[in-house]
Structure to design on (423 residues):
């Protein structure tokens, strides 16, 4: 049998674990696009990458704790404006209609007594890691699926009729050790166990014995991995429940790999096991949303600031990306993007040089930018033949310099050294 363990409203619950005064009241954790990186003063940014798995994207943070006013409130020309979105809400807040991804200002209108706390990613990462280690002690095969979700395989370890009791015990122990509420789904397969957790929530344990009977009436959008695109496709075939998927074997098999995989997962015939080791990251990216900016110099400066953060992550991961991607979103849904494959040894100078060229190529003069996205992918190593030999000597020098900068930044914070195009 498989278990799927999911922490109930994780960030909100984590705050309660630290401050019990938050229990029993409507409360939520909120966050806003971290725009501190664009400040010109030193803010001593660090990268949180200690959660070694590839399942959680790295987060930049500063040690300084902020109050609600400091973090969420902007005062422009005397007008107080609450910014940011809800990332996790307690069930008391949800009862008022508060949802994840809702603007905080709107959530506070629905639930004026709600307490909103700025997110503390460091705390969440630490708790998540501790919980993972705890779970490894209890279950021989554990997979960390996301920051607050785990899969466990109990076959050959706990007899089937005892699995429910085992899960109840685990839930109790996690509550005692970590003050965290979890819900647990139990099923003969992984993805059905994950689905069962949704039925178990909040703070429940739910076991699926008969997969066919269980899935029959469940709407397709509940199933993990059926995104908006797939939903549209299924609706076009008048498929709205998982039970109806089961009836359409032929159709799904005609959709090749993604169709077949989905069909097997939904019907519990995928035979997928626990992945205890995750494949490394395939790309490294960062994006930022902000108030409209029209000055091309400022847009370019922000791209360079974000580039420095990418460089830091790349060097930290010890990879050599060869594809660079840049996207600029302007007001009113206008966007431009560009990607370059550069078969050279990665360095800050090379990367920023290419970004400048890419920016000049795609920039729309006179439009106001609202979002920037930078991404690097296609990792190779220095020894592969694909790297341009002509430039290799020169690239080695700049790569070496980037390594030196990395040492400094690791010690003194990411913003100890900036390049001229960021100033
Ligand atoms: Mg959760």
């Amino acid at each position: 049998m498989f278990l799927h363990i999911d922490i109930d409203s994780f960030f909100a619950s984590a705050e309660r674990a630290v401050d019990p005064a938050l229990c029993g009241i409507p409360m939520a954790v909120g966050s806003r696009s971290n725009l501190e990186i664009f400040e010109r003063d030193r803010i001593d940014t660090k990268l949180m990458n200690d959660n070694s798995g590839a399942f959680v994207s790295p987060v930049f943070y500063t040690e300084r704790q902020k109050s609600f006013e400091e973090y969420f409130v902007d005062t422009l020309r005397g007008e107080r404006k609450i910014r940011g979105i809800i990332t996790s809400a307690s069930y008391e807040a949800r009862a008022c209609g508060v949802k994840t991804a809702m603007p905080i200002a709107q959530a506070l209108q629905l639930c004026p007594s709600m307490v909103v706390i700025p997110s503390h990613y460091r705390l969440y990462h630490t708790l998540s890691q501790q919980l993972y280690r705890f779970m490894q002690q209890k279950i021989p095969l554990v997979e960390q699926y996301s920051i607050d979700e785990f899969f466990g395989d109990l076959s050959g370890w706990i007899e089937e009729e005892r699995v429910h009791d085992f899960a109840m015990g685990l839930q109790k122990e996690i509550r005692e050790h970590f003050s965290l509420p979890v819900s647990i789904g139990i099923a003969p397969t992984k993805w059905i166990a994950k689905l069962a957790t949704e039925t178990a929530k909040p703070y429940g344990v739910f076991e699926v014995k008969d997969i066919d009977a269980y899935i029959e009436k469940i709407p397709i959008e509940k199933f993990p991995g059926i995104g908006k695109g797939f939903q549209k496709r299924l609706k076009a075939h008048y498929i709205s429940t998982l039970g109806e998927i089961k009836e359409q074997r032929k159709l799904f098999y005609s959709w090749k790999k993604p169709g077949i995989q989905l069909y097997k997962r939904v019907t519990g015939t995928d035979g997928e096991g626990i992945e205890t080791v995750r494949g490394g990251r395939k790309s490294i990216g960062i994006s930022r949303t902000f108030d409209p900016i029209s000055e091309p110099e400022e847009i370019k400066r922000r791209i360079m600031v974000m580039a420095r953060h990418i460089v830091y992550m790349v060097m930290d991961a010890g990879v050599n990306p060869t594809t660079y991607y840049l996207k600029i979103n302007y007001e009113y849904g206008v966007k431009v993007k560009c990607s370059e494959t550069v078969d050279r040894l990665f360095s800050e100078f090379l990367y920023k040089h290419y970004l400048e060229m890419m920016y000049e190529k795609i920039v729309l003069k006179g439009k106001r930018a609202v979002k920037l996205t930078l991404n690097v992918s296609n990792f190779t190593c220095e020894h592969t033949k694909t790297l341009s030999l002509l430039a290799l000597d020169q690239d080695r020098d700049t790569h070496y310099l980037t390594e030196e900068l990395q040492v400094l930044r690791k010690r003194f914070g990411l913003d100890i050294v900036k390049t001229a195009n960021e100033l």
